[in-house]
Every structure is written in structure tokens, then in C-alpha cells.
Amino acid sequence: MARSPGAWLVAFDQQERIAFDVDSMMAGQPVHELWDETGDCYIHLFPRSTGKGPSFRLSSSVFASSASLTKMAFGRLYSDNTLADQEPGRDLSGQFSIKSDGSRSTRQSLEEASGEVHLHLDLRLNGNPAPVPPKKSKNTPISEDAETMIEMRNLFGFLCGQALVATEKRFTLFSIFMRIAEHLQRHEFSNMDSSTFGEVASSSFDSYVNELQLADVRRSSEKAVEMLLLGERMRSVGLYNEAFTHAVGKLEDIKRVAPTTYNAVSSATQTRLSRAAMDLEKRIANASATCTDFDMPSIFSGIMSSRTVDERQYVNFDAWKSSFFTTRKFIVGYYKALFGSWPPKPNPKKNQLQSPGLSRIVLLQLYNDLSAVYDLIVDHTALTNRTADGVSIEERSTDPPRIRALRHVLSEWDRSSPPVKPPMPFDIPNLPRSGEPKISKKFKSEDLVKVLQASHNPTSRPTSFVQAFREFERSQAKGCTIEEIADLRYGQWIFMYAVLQELPLLVVDAPSIRYTAGVEYFLCEASRGGVPWARDAASAGRSHQWYGVAGGAGVVSLPSDVIENSIEAIYRRSHCWIMAQQWSAENPIMAAAVEEQQRAAATDLVPPPPIGSPGLRVDSRSSSPARSKRESVLNLGLEAIPLPSGVSPDRRVAPGGPASRPVSMHVSDPAKTFDAILADVGGKPGKKRK
What we know:
Blueprint: E1 7-9, E2 18-19, H1 22-26, E3 41-44, E4 56-58, H2 67-74, H3 80-84, H4 104-112, E5 117-120, H5 144-160, E6 165-167, H6 173-186, H7 199-211, H8 221-233, H9 237-249, H10 251-257, H11 259-264, H12 267-291, H13 317-339, H14 360-377, E7 386-387, E8 390-391, H15 401-414, H16 445-454, H17 464-477, H18 482-502, H19 504-507, E9 544-549, E10 555-559, H20 560-564, H21 567-572, H22 575-585, H23 588-601, H24 625-635, E11 638-640, H25 665-668, H26 674-682
Parallel strand pairs: 3-5
Antiparallel strand pairs: 1-2, 1-6, 3-4, 7-8, 9-10, 9-11
Helix pairs in contact: 5-6, 6-8, 8-9, 8-10, 9-12, 13-18, 14-18, 15-18
Protein name: DUF8004 domain-containing protein
InterPro entries: DUF8004
Domain DUF8004: 203-295
């Protein structure tokens, strides 16, 4: 009876086991995939007393981030006094000679060592033979010593990017990498702030994550929490963030199917998961209140219900309300026909849904459909004059009465429930227009089609929902005057705007999430704060960015995740804001303003001018109140400042950079001469220019 190998190579989507030659390794022969003829370090798995030779030959740079292995390999050449306490210095180019991961100085010392280097590992072998397998067993057992050696083979194979070896004891990728993480921790692999295990280990694990698709946890709650734990143990920000977002979406299922693994996750991560799950529940509740039956009474409780507002003499609010409810009826009917019911239920004859209710897939389809209609009828030449506080008082008189009333209604909706929603950059529709002087004239069928088509943007996406909306719009406008058709458009717009503004907090996925296709749970919650495994969890592994404050001369440094996960940033990543950026880029005035801002901010080694300063002006319009408010809508109050690495406007160490790296002082002082800069680098007084 043929037995399966006791150790085998691991591959993605493996169909059969490819045997690993354990016997040759146990006999002291070199492991060919870990034998580099150009390597400077011989690695011994067996004690000196056995007389067996080295098993691996590698470049010592692969373990340069390990303090203990470096000491074991180089002995007296490695000294805490000469390396650990070494102060970073600069060469004449102004570059630091020590990288942020602390490995460059070690690597330089290793390169200075001459001759062969031998690393003897204390593996504590017991010499016991492999157990005898049962007669009916198809497995080939291996000894405890072989298990120990395979673990070390996997450690160095991991550092070199080789295939890993599985055994009956550790046959899953999760268990293999968890053991590798233990060895990395035991041998003191680390960068400067302990946010990773060093450059080699970090880049190698990223490659494994990509090739083995470790971050694809969509189909298994157990794998989701395993990869979350593995992300912590392997100090992988990418894997941790991906698994975290997926874990939030199915947290209750994780606690049910994998309680032991969940309890092994750090308390900091568990707290983050609980808080993110609570926030997700609130978002789902808000969206459900709006989209379950599209009942939005707050829209009609403000200006539209008032009998005394000035706008009422120009605006037929009752017609708007009637059009709103007609549109609501059309939407519900469309999705009932599509899914079989609304809210949808799993129905093999109608849909492929696995979970009932307003899932991520359902709300994504609703959002994408309404976004397509938004593209069809939006006026993308009229940038809003609204802010999150409502209609700008200074510009109330510049809008026609109907537009002013519409924006008032939209602002009331944006502020009707927390969180307050930022107004869409382009927030009014194209209105049907007629060349006929008589506004009371009712259109014939062929003329009606022309009028409606003229109010549509030709670049919009042709979808089945858009086609259904066109037919619905045509049926509603039949026998109407141009004014009545405009009132229909206003009501349709209010409905569409309200739903589109409600959904981004759920349907816009967290930044950098890769595996999203087919996921029914929501992927909108990202991990916030620094990595939980670092010494300074609040800042390690957390990038910072300098931002200019719109309308002022100040700058502020904020963690990137705070900005990326803010309400404003989420909306900025949504469809209406993305399209606004594209449409603004097509506007020569706006495009010139953006180009000028980028040019000014990118000036080499010169601090950026204050936002709103004359250096950013394109023409007289750029300094007008309307212009500044429009930029505020698009930029949401903060403008990222692209600065060179290690440079900050306040002369401090750049956030997210290594703690030992000072800021280039000549950047903060533009008056300093080049001689003075070189003098600072060399530590000598500079000569003044004559």
C-alpha cells in the first residue's frame, strides 16, 4: 500500500502532495533550494559533535534584522556598543546611512566581515526515531527531530521566498505561518519601531499573501479570524486590515464558529472589532430606515410643509411631493420585479442571494442604478453653493427661486439625522426646456421625447435601470406642460438625491480592500489607529500626512487613517464625488486652478504657500467667496500637501518617519545657503558667501 509522504511542499490550490526529501536533510546533506553558492553564511542544523556539515548556505542579509541570529553568526563582530547605540549619520548627499527598519547598518557590518561565516543553531535534538505507523495507516510519520528541522527549514525558506513544507502536525498554511511567526519573535526579528519583523520578512510575507491568496477570506468566517490573528502575529498591516474589515461584517458568525481563535486575537483588536461592529449596526439601521420602504417624512417636514415661506409663491411643492411618491412607487415596483420582493429574500428563481434583507449586494445595485440616473440628469455645470451648514446666506439671492428652494430641501435632508452629510458637489438636475414661447402648451408624443432627451446627458451609462427610468419619465410627462415636466423632474431628483446620500456609508468599501466581489456583508469598516502589536500602538505602522486648512494659512498633521475613514472622505470616494472630480477637470478654469495648486505645492524644497494665497489664483474668480466655497465642497476643507520624505512644515520629525531621523533643517529655512547646509551635514562651521 502506497503511503502519502510525511512532509510535502505547499502550493496554492494543491491537488496532490509533492514529497519533500526529509531523509536527505536528516542525513546532513545540503537542502538544495536553500544552498546559494554565492552566500556568505553556512547554517548548521546539527550540533558540532555529530560531524555533519551545514544544511543551508545563504546570504547573511536574509537575517540581518535578527539581533540574536546576527550575534550567533558573527560573535565579536556584532556589538551592542558599535551597532545598537550607533547614531545615524549623513553622507554628503544628505541621505541617512541607517534605514528606518534598522537593517542597513547591520547589513553594512556583515558585508565588512571577511571569510566564511558559520551559524550554528541550537535545536535541542533528542535523537528519537520516527514512530512506527499503524498497518492500515496511509501516512508516513516523521520524527520529532525532523519536525524541528522542517520548522527551521521553513523559517529560512520563508526569508528566501521558497516553497514551504507541511507535515501531518502542521498541514495548514495558518499553522505553518503561525510557527514561523513564533521563530521570528524568538529570534528578535524587528525594524526600528517593532511594527514589522524587518524589511526581508515583511516583503517576503507580502509575496506569500499575494501568491497564496491568504487575504481572500470571503467564503469562510474561520479563515477570516485566522488571517486576522496571523496578520497580528506576522505584523502584516495589509493582511490585518483586509481580514479586519471582513471580520467586522461577520463578527457574530466568527464568535460562533471559531471562538478559540477569536479569543487568541489581541484584546486591542477585539475592542476595535466590537466598536466597528456597533458603528456598522448604526449605519445599517439608518439605511434600513430609509430604504426598506423609502419612507422619508423628514423631507416634507421643513420648507415643503411651510405655508409662509417666500419660495411657495414661485414653487409648487405639492407637485414635487406628488412626483416624489410616484418615483418611490416606480422604484419599489422595479425591484420587486427584479428580486421577487422588496426588501429582497433569497429566491432561486429570481436571484442568487444567500441572505435576506438589504445586504451589501442589494444596496450596491440600488446605489449603482440611481448613480446611473444621476449621471443621466445631473447638471454638471452648476457647482453647488451649499456647505454642510446649509445654503450659503451670501448667495441665496443668486439662485432662482426654484433652485434656492430645491437646495433648501436637500440641505434639510442632509442635516436631518446624524451624521450630517456633505452636500453633493453638483446637486441640481438638468431641467427640460422648450423653444416654444407658450409655457402652457402640452407636447405631442414625438416632441416630448425630444424635450426629455435634450435634458439628458449623452455620456451617461446605458443600463436596464436607466432605460426603465426613461420609460417611466416619458409616461409621467405625457400630456404635461414644460413647467409640469420640470416639477416632475424636481420630485424625481429629491427622491434620488435622498437615497444616494444615505448609502455611501455602507456601500463605499474601506480603503485598499481587495476581495469584494460577491460579498453580501458590508465592507465599510476599517481598522483605526496604529498597529496593535507595536510598542507605540498609537503611531507605529500609521502613516501621517500634512494638510492645509482650506480658507486659512495653517497646516495640520493628521494620521492618514483618520482622514481616509472620516465621513467626508467616505463621501469623497463615492460616485457623485468621483464624477465631480472628472467634470471639474474638464472645466478649463477649475483645471487651471488645480494645476496651479499642484505646481505651487510641489515647488522643490520650498514650503507651500498658504492656501488661498495670491500664488494660487488663476483669475479674479478664484478669490471670490463663491469660488472658495466651491473648492471647499470638492476638497472638503483639507488639502493634502505633498512634501519630501522626512520634511515637515514645523521643523519636527515627520510623522510616521523613524524616530531617529531629524528633519532636513534647510528645507524649513529657505534663507539658508548651500554652504551652510553642507556645514550642518559635516558638523563644521560654514563659510559665508561673498
